[in-house]
Amino acid sequence: MSDDAGPSAWIGTSWKMTKTLAQAREYARVLADVSWPSGVQPFVVPPATAIAAVAEILPPGGPVLVGAQDAHWEDEGAWTGEISVPQVWDAGARLLEIGHSERRAHFGETDERVNLKVRAALRHGVLPLVCVGEDAEQRAAGAAVEVVSSQVRAALAGVPETARVLLAYEPVWAIGSGGRPASPDDIVDVVAAIADLGGTARPVLYGGSVSLDNAAALMAVPRVNGLFVGRSAWQVEGFIALAAIVAECST
Q1: pLDDT in tens, 22-35
Q2: 193 in Cβ contact with 147 (< 8 Å)
Q3: For residue 77, what is the domain's CATH number?
């Protein structure tokens, strides 16, 4: 991070279950040669298999943060198939994505587990990136603010107010290849609610069908501090172009 106050804006991407080691290294090498705009913090979240390879090229303390897509809340033990926060730290990750809607929907990620993982990340000096968002049915019922506020409160239960946490608002109906891009009017009230709950130590990022076409409009929503992008940033040129938009919008 740039200083104690933190960067003015964030731009990040999760690669989900994509990229071989060779592809991950190639992407990282391009990022290593970029002159990043002042005040903008870029980050990439590779699959677990590529964290160490990417962190060798984008090492801790450098301009680009490397993250992990998930980690267990226990430091070690008989958890077959899992990886711990100390292990992702050891691989070079300094950010941990927690509570993505795909993890909640398909892998039993509850609000309670999200909170355990937030605490585990903070315990080991890893920056938590907590994903929250309502589904289409909840949105249609007018419950978006209520649902997302509940997720944020649960994630931050028992977490000191001064602890640095990133909050990523990703409405489920806007995510993935079949998602509907959100308009600024769709998200403004939810973003405000998240920002009020998070306070000054909790920047709010927006994610969900972010593209070069809508990035500037989404960044213009009050209290949006950055973008968390999926497939539009899976090609490195897209990520760099989105970073330029974020930088321009945050000056």
Answers
A1: 999 999 999 999 99
A2: no
A3: 3.20.20.70
